[in-house]
Specification:
This is Oxidoreductase CzcO. Helix content is 26%, strand content 20%. The chain is an alpha/beta fold. The protein has 2 domains: 209 residues, FAD/NAD(P)-binding domain, CATH 3.50.50; 201 residues, FAD/NAD(P)-binding domain. Helix 1 runs parallel beside helix 3. The longest helix is centred in the C-terminal third of the chain and has 26 residues. It is globular.
Amino acid sequence: MKDLRKHYSAIIIGGGQAGLSVSHYLQQQAIGHLVIEKHSLMHSWQTARWDSFTLVTPNWQCQLPDHPYDGDDPKGFMKRDDVVAYLDRFATKVQPPALEGVAVNRVSLNSNGKYAVKSSAGEFSADQIVVASGGYHLPIIPRMAERLPDRLFQLHSAEYRSPEQLPEGAVLVVGSGQSGAQIAEDLHIAGRKVFLATGDAPRVARQYRGKDVVEWLDEMGYYEMLVDQHPLREGVRDNTNHYVTGRDGGREIDLRKFALEGMELFGLLEEYRNGDFIFRDNLQANLDHADSVYCNINQRIDAYIASQGIEAPPASEYTPCWEPNQERSELNLVDAGISAVIWCIGFRPDFHWLDASVFNGQGHPIHKRGVTQQPGLYFIGLPWLHTWGSGRFSGVAADAEYLVERIKAYQRQQDAALQPLSEQASA
């Protein structure tokens, strides 16, 4: 980057779609800023997705600032390489003033009210800081993993690429959220023997009554629901996403169907002891919970169709295609022929570099629509930042535009405070 300065009106930390969306609106307002990215722009999309990855939301929901989906399949689901290309085109449009390959080591507030940014490329300062590094930083791997045999191949879902990456043998997939369910399916389709340790993740239909469920929910206003309007309030930010897939044109995922086809399902993985994996006896409860959410969403769509007098195909009722006869609570590693374990149990946030008293006990930032109680400090790109759509390509533009308005207002306030009293009186 040319003409690198030491002080900026705003510094954005993170060069993904959220950070670049903020840069887009800052440029429109002629507010000087710098984007600092630890790797390369859109790095996580390029490196942290498996080979068969697809979006789980339809392409038409890709609505980045002045960059809507520009392909010929709006109701389809972009594959990983297509998503990367879409985001690269967005970055080319924005042309952010960015430093790539630069790690931020410390951000703190000086006594003069400016933010000091220490990085691997030197020190900078800013009037305001936008944290756009997301909330998925540290892969969660339980301590029991340390006691598994050295011969066992272990990796986190963020490192998974394809079945060919794993040694021959059966695979234990731990976790049934979006990543776990889709990775288990990927291995299952490839003919691998899969054991799946389930959790309490909900599921959703792909198509229902003539439309993709996402289209129905969008029409019903669900993606514009404010976090304050949700029954759980801020607690909804901790919810696991519904599992579904955009693979092969999009379809729902039913773990019961996998079980009919030979995948072995278990409850929550609790322990590893003397060569045995120990599971909680809650497989039935996990499956029933996922199905109850699935059915509840369909019923809400039914009610909406009825209330609006919409002509649509008739409603249908889900019937479980498989039930566990007797839940198994133990699985012997050797007897099962397991050669690999994939941990699909999420991430922890890591904002250790940010010296600010704006975090809760779990390390998540406390904010109102991305605005923290510390003046000039903002977050973007987090689930349920403001609405359900905040964590999707459909909602980041509105979040970014709102934050830039706040940044602009704060800048005006600071500029006014610096004016001599005589100038303020004559203004």
